[in-house]
TrEMBL record:
Pfam families: DDE_3, HTH_23, HTH_Tnp_Tc3_2. The chain crosses the membrane at residues 501-523, 543-559. Residues 68-140 form the Transposase Tc1-like domain. This is Transposase. It comes from Rotaria socialis. Residues 149-297 form the Tc1-like transposase DDE domain. GO terms for molecular function: DNA binding.
Length: 765
């Protein structure tokens, strides 16, 4: 591609400076153009006696004005045509092979712009004036005044045209360009929903088919509105205001008479102002969630809406991080459970933090909940990492949220607990910590140079050995270090020869430096690398290091499997604790002389070139009879520390209460409980106000017979139920059980709502 053409003014300047007697070299430096441009400008001026560009010298246009007008007219005939549609039109009718960018540039030449077709017309001047007057009237209302308002509204959700953005093109100065609306489906094309929202509560979703008239509206108010008034105190009930828009069914004589009869005060509302009603945020959230469902008929549509509305209780999952632009952000997510016991962990987004203290983070969390129409009174759990600002005892995010909602049980992220346990293990075991430092050095040394990586691949091909990429050590995820250990062990013998080869290669470059002084700087770098390679080579010839790598891989590979299980969004506390217990039992089982002998023998066969030397201790240290006894002590000590660290980290304050709830859920379906059972006190502490404990006691006496009947009817080969997932599976196979044992059903949902990790938020970051 050629350089940018010189402007006419620059050419005139060249000629003027030439006439003053300045040479071409001086003109080039003064105008900052090349000498070739100066020479050509002077030559063309001498030939043509003008600095203007010769006619026809530019690149010829591919399209004529007539073809451009044809594309413009096609767009005006149908303003919803996309750029791809116009490209296909040009190919089929105008015999032009043009790109989308060319079509877009042509439309901009005719001042045709793209915008989203509005769904409603603009308000009139009178409506705008009434809106401003209403805002000034309520400008001085306090939070207490607004907390006495019940906001209500009905909405119609369409089955078709779900992704309802239509882009159209009109002239920029077209005064009628807002008269283009999107097609709407009326009368049977969607499902109607009515609900209300207050300062402390979100009302139920009431479904209705067809158009809503005054009679249906009064019937809904008669059944649902008293529940909203019950949530207010006796002092607040005197000042309650009911909000509704100015639809005909709201302002009809029959509806007005009903409000007077019930002594319900109405708040005046400006016309066509849905943006002032906070319940519109609820409709927006419901509309976005409906896009995840494949809906083709009214039954599926209603079922999807009921599924969304049934997930009332939720838990908070948050994690903070600093991005590459040094902005501190909070990843906010919620965990909820539907009636089929399906666990959902939805990330609502990343939000910038002005400060990193607990008060600022809690302020952002409450702001997000308000914007999303979520009530803090429905929060039943919270999970964060171990930072002091997030999970400290006093003044942390968990503490401040608990002061607002005492039922929001805090659970320290179990994946983070596992990382801390592995980190503690590394600090307590010098054998493993030394190997980690060495593994980091050798992996960084090889990965830092593409030449060393190519040498490693070349040697692996020469020896017909499979090449394994060296994985860098993760600085935060300690359980992921097994992958790095394995890659180093697979190339252990290969790496020894590789380092030796690299060392000799660097020495060769140093030798050549005697003859090439120009490579002095490069040789200095290679010299330092050569010394580093020699030191790493000597360390890799030691059996102590190879033993530490194998032992570290044994421990980290097991913890990595546990970490993968913990990070699943469908996990509950029972899965976490049972997996951690199985890992500790595994470490206890292999912590004996038989397993050590097998481990040590395999190690000797794998490293027959590395001969372990007799351990020689100083006078003030413990002496060992043989080198095998020394490595046995390191093996037993590392496994014992691993078990102790896992026990310490997987013992949290709320685990005892949650474990009692879990034991009750399992015990109830296997044995008949009486009223004196100790588990009911834990149930009251866990879900006080959410579950009727007296009804739960009655259900606990009957549910064991129900489960035995379902197991026998469905011919399930189950002798004893030991997992929560089995209970959920049986309930889903017999839906009538959820109606018979409502309190027990609620208890399972609340138990599954409690988060166990923040992995979903961390994966988003």
């Amino acid at each position: 591609m050629g350089k940018k053409a010189v402007s006419i003014d620059t050419k005139k300047g060249i000629i003027l400076l030439r006439d003053t007697g300045m040479c071409q070299h001086e003109i080039s430096r003064k105008l900052n153009v090349s000498r070739t441009c100066v020479r050509q400008a002077i030559r063309k001026f001498n030939e043509l006696h003008t600095t203007a560009t010769k006619s026809g010298a530019e690149r010829p246009f591919k399209m004529t004005r007539r073809q451009k007008r044809a594309i413009k007219l096609q767009q005006l005939r149908d303003d919803t045509l996309s750029l791809n549609d116009l490209v296909r039109y040009a190919q089929a009718n105008l015999n032009l092979n043009i790109s989308r960018q060319t079509v877009s540039r042509i439309l901009r030449e005719f001042d045709l712009v793209s915008y989203v077709a509005p769904r409603k017309p603009q308000i009139t001047h009178e409506q705008r004036r009434c809106r401003i007057f209403w805002c000034y009237k309520h400008l001085n209302w306090t939070e207490t005044d607004w907390s006495n308002v019940i906001f209500s509204d009905e909405a119609n959700f369409e089955i078709v045209n779900r992704n309802n953005r239509i882009y159209i093109r009109r002239f920029r100065n077209d005064l009628k360009r807002h008269e283009r609306f999107q097609p709407r489906v009326h009368r049977g094309g969607g499902l109607g929903i009515w609900s209300y929202i207050t300062y402390n509560d979100l009302g139920p979703l009431v479904f209705f088919n067809g158009r809503l008239n005054s009679d249906k509206y009064i019937e809904i108010l008669e059944n649902k509105l008293p529940n909203a008034f019950e949530k207010f105190s006796s002092e607040q009930s005197k000042n309650i205001l009911y909000q509704q828009d100015n639809a005909r069914l709201h302002t009809s004589a029959k509806t007005s008479k009903y409000f007077k009869k019930k002594h319900i005060k109405l708040i005046p509302w400006p016309a066509r102002r849905p943006d002032l009603n906070i319940i519109e945020n609820i409709w927006s959230i419901v509309d976005q969630k409906l896009l995840k469902y494949s809906i083709s008929n009214m039954a599926q549509f209603e079922e999807a809406l009921k599924t969304i509305s049934n997930r009332k209780c939720f838990s908070l999952i948050c994690d903070e991080t600093c991005d590459e632009s040094t902005l501190e952000q909070l990843c906010f997510g919620i965990r909820s459970v539907n009636d089929n016991y399906e666990i959902f962990e939805d990330v609502l987004g990343l939000y910038e933090l002005s400060r990193q203290n607990a008060e600022a983070i809690v302020e952002v969390i409450f702001d997000i909940l308000t914007r999303c129409g979520l009530n803090i009174s429905d929060c039943r759990g919270q999970s964060y990492d171990g930072a002091s600002s997030m999970s400290g005892i006093y003044g942390s995010v968990s503490d401040l949220v608990l002061k607002q909602q005492s039922k929001a049980f805090f659970v320290h992220c179990n994946a983070h607990c596992l990382d801390l346990a592995v980190h503690d293990l590394t600090n307590e075991c010098p054998t493993i910590s030394n190997c980690i430092l060495f593994a980091k050095d050798i992996i960084d040394f090889v990965r830092r140079s593409p030449k060393r990586l190519s040498i490693l691949k070349e040697i692996s091909n020469q020896l017909s050995m499979p090449y394994s990429n060296l994985a860098s050590l993760c600085p935060t995820r300690w359980t992921r270090r097994a992958e790095s250990y394995n890659s180093l062990l697979n190339n252990y013998e290969l790496d020894i020869q590789n380092l030796n080869y690299v060392y000799l290669f660097i020495l060769l470059l140093i030798f050549l430096a005697w003859f090439q002084e120009a490579l002095y700087t490069l040789i200095e770098e290679k010299g330092a690398s050569g010394i580093k390679a020699n030191g790493l080579h000597e360390q890799m010839n030691r059996f102590y290091l190879f033993f530490g790598l194998k032992l570290g891989y044994l421990l980290f590979s097991a913890t990595e499997k546990l970490s993968r299980i913990i990070q699943s969004s469908s996990c509950c506390l029972q899965d976490i604790l049972s997996s951690a217990e199985s890992l500790m039992l595994y470490f206890e089982r292999i912590r004996d002389d038989i397993n050590f002998k097998s481990f040590y023998t395999k190690l000797r066969h794998a490293s027959f070139t590395l001969i372990p030397k007799r351990y020689q201790s100083s006078s003030d240290s413990v002496e060992f009879s043989s080198y095998e006894e020394f490595y046995r002590q390191q093996y037993m000590k590392s496994l014992g520390i691993a078990v102790n660290m896992l026990q310490n980290r997987f013992t949290q304050k709320n685990f005892k209460l949650l474990c009692n709830v879990e034991k009750f859920i399992l015990y109830a379906v296997n044995n008949s409980l009486d009223d004196s059972n100790d588990y009911f006190q834990s149930i009251m502490d866990f879900c006080y106000g959410d579950i009727d404990v007296e009804k739960l006691k009655v259900e606990a006496l009957m549910i064991v017979d129900f489960y035995q009947s379902v197991i026998k009817t469905n011919q399930m080969n189950i002798k004893q139920i030991t997992k929560i997932s089995t209970i959920c599976e049986i309930f889903n196979s017999c839906e009538v059980g959820k109606e018979m044992f409502k309190e027990y059903h609620k208890l399972i949902k609340l138990y599954l709502t409690i988060p166990v990790t923040t992995a979903t938020a961390e994966r988003t970051i």
